[in-house]
Write a structure and sequence with these properties.
Layout: E1 3-4, E2 19-25, E3 31-37, E4 45-50, H1 61-69, E5 72-77, H2 97-112, E6 119-124, H3 127-130, E7 142-146, H4 158-179, H5 195-204, H6 218-226, E8 232-237, H7 245-252, E9 260-265, H8 284-300
């Protein structure tokens, strides 16, 4: 996998924080739009920011810039069909969650690997699922994810669960059939999604354990996640209506052969966080904690 638009050389000596738009090439040849935030001064580590479903990479730019000023050479990117990785019409476009994880996130990992500097990853929501599917997960020394868990409506409050269930049952199916993709933008819920992504998402949200409970893929998923040895911190805000601590724990139990630190965040000091507030500028104390955790992992290598 290659990264276009960037010079080679020793990345541990790069300086500056001006973002640079680049293109990654996934293993199947698909071009992935990404942005590189060069670290200020000496690079202490490389960092990948892996986003949530339907959330474009620009949403994470404040976090990426913050990490870069702290010495982390940081990469954001869009999954295929989203943002800078969208090519043409979504109707008829073939892509699913497995492509996003194994090919797109996999390409980001290959692009940032450097034997001289440790590589870490920050995730949001779907990224907590994607990490366990990575073919090159062993290259990442630590994974810190916010708001990742099972999307089953039963883990939510009664009112929120009912809203989500109605959305999956009565709203999304006819819209997806009509458009040939899920028009998330019309629902005010982010970027439009390829049909394959929508179908997997809807199916797996039917199960309390997400895809670990899906008879069609459960054994395969459990085997993949059992390979993971990378230390993980899974942080959740107590006011996240979609991914509660119970939803997080139901999913994170799939990472059964590594150390998973579960962190419940009090949202009050931040004026509330919900599912998206982790990456808004007011949450900088949380960002600092994540970067400090990575530095702790570096000292253990």
């Amino acid at each position: 996998m290659k990264m276009n638009g960037e010079r080679g050389g020793d990345m541990s000596q790069t300086t500056g924080t001006k973002p640079q738009a680049i293109t990654l090439t996934a293993a199947d040849g698909y071009p992935i739009g990404a942005t590189r935030f060069q670290a200020s001064g000496r690079v202490v580590a490389h960092l990948i920011v892996a986003g949530a479903t339907g959330v474009p990479q620009g949403f994470y730019r404040h976090f990426a810039q913050f990490a870069a000023t702290g010495g982390f050479s940081t990469l954001t990117f869009d999954y295929r069909g989203i943002g800078a990785s969208r090519r043409g019409r979504l109707k008829g476009f073939k892509a699913d969650f497995l492509d996003w994880a194994q090919l797109d996130l996999g390409a980001a990992v290959e692009a940032m690997v450097d034997e001289k500097v440790p590589l870490f990853m920050v995730g949001h929501s779907f990224a907590g699922h994607a990490f366990g599917l990575l073919p090159n997960h062993h290259r990442v020394r630590g994974f810190y994810t916010f708001g990742s868990g099972s999307g089953w409506h039963g883990w939510m409050s009664r009112i929120e669960g009912l809203k989500v269930l109605l959305l999956w049952t009565f709203v999304c199916p006819p819209m997806a059939r009509w458009y040939g993709y899920l028009p998330m933008a019309r629902l005010g819920m982010g970027e439009n999604l390829p049909l394959g992504v929508y179908r997997q998402w809807r199916r797996w949200c039917r199960f309390p354990g997400y895809f670990f409970d899906d008879p069609a893929v459960a054994d395969q998923m459990r085997q993949k996640f059992a390979r993971i040895k990378t230390p993980i911190t899974a942080a959740n805000s107590l006011d996240d209506a979609w991914i509660t601590p119970r939803a997080r724990d139901a999913f994170m139990s799939g990472y059964r052969n590594t150390r998973v630190e579960r962190l419940d965040i009090d949202p009050a000091p931040f004026g509330g966080l919900g599912h998206m507030g982790y990456f808004r500028p007011g949450a900088q104390p949380l960002w600092r904690e994540a970067l400090e955790w990575f530095q702790t992992q570096s000292s253990m290598i």
